[in-house]
Amino acid sequence: MRCYCCSSASFERCCEPLLNGTKSPKSAEQLMRSRFSAYATNQYEFVINTYTREKQEGLTVESLKQSADGALWFALQITPPSAQEATLDTVEFTAFYFENKSLFQLHETSNFLIEDNQWRYHDGTLHDDCGKIKYGRNLPCLCGSNKKFKQCCATKLR
């Protein structure tokens, strides 16, 4: 099975070892991808554990579950940084999800820190294009499968 984070690797080789703790993320992008996969598979304990200590305060599995309730996360696109913007601790991404049979996107530039020799998510800046979007059924699927959207991830709405 292809990984939830839309990399070209299988879930077993990509994010699963990070989610089950047998491997640690080696970069901010790898942590971002694994956090997306955790949301896609409802592994909120992993999400909490990958925040910085400062940001973990007040978070609970139940509060994350409640905030994500009804969302079906299905595609992640990492925006490659320009040469001027490239830093090791920042990742710009767009995550796509369905909620109430509508399509939404979350576009964020995330900041990561190394804490206790582990990459951790600290905070992020949301872009103005977050929210409900329209996407053509005959366009290539957002997940990068090279199929039409209507023949790929849009089938998850049925």
TrEMBL record:
Gene3D superfamilies: 3.10.450.50. It holds the Pfam family YchJ_M-like. SUPFAM superfamilies: NTF2-like, Sec-C motif. Transmembrane segments: none annotated. This is Zinc chelation protein SecC. Residues 27-124 form the YchJ-like middle NTF2-like domain.
